[in-house]
Amino acid sequence: MTSDQEELIEKAQRSVAAAGILLEEGYPGFAVSRAYYAMFYIAEAFLEGEGLAFSKHSATIAAFGKQFIKTGQIPKEFHRYLIEAMEARHEGDYVSREVIAEDRAKQIVGHAEEFIGLARQMMAGNAEGQKNRTSGESSG
User: Does residue 93 come out as left (phi exceeding 0), alpha (psi in the -120 to 50 range) or beta?
Assistant: First the structure.
């Protein structure tokens, strides 16, 4: 795992923590926004591992789907979680009245937590694999 990936995962964890606080305080729309950003940061972290970065959210989400979902490296529901969270964030951020139900917000925050867990698991595994290959090369 690169330092940039680690920073993005930590940023995602802080974002989910903020989402939890917002939910507790009765702000489901704002909680969804933070949860979306947590997932977005994780998608960026995965793409960072491939040397890819994009300036638009839509390009990042599309590339995440192409690089990781279509190849079967990551279960397809994670792409769906990200897209649904983006749509909910738009509702929460751009509709003047509160339109995000608390149950829906809790579900999206839960998906963001799953996303972080997946990233930690997969990136730790990749780091271990890199370490083993490197040590195997130097001792062989």
Answer: alpha
The CATH code belonging to domain 3-134 is: 1.20.120.330
Is pTM beyond 0.70 here?
yes
Of 84, 76, 118, the C-alpha closest to 104 is: 84
Count of C-beta atoms within a 10 Å radius of residue 120: 16
- Domain residue ranges in the chain: 3-134
Distance, first Cα to last Cα, the chain: 24
The Cα–Cα gap between 41 and 36 comes to 9
pLDDT in tens, 57-88: 999 999 999 999 999 999 999 999 999 999 99
Could you tell me which of 13, 8, 16 has the C-alpha nearest to residue 43? Answer: 8
Task: Give the pLDDT confidence score for residue 39 in this predicted structure.
Answer: 98
CB 28 within 8 A of CB 100: yes
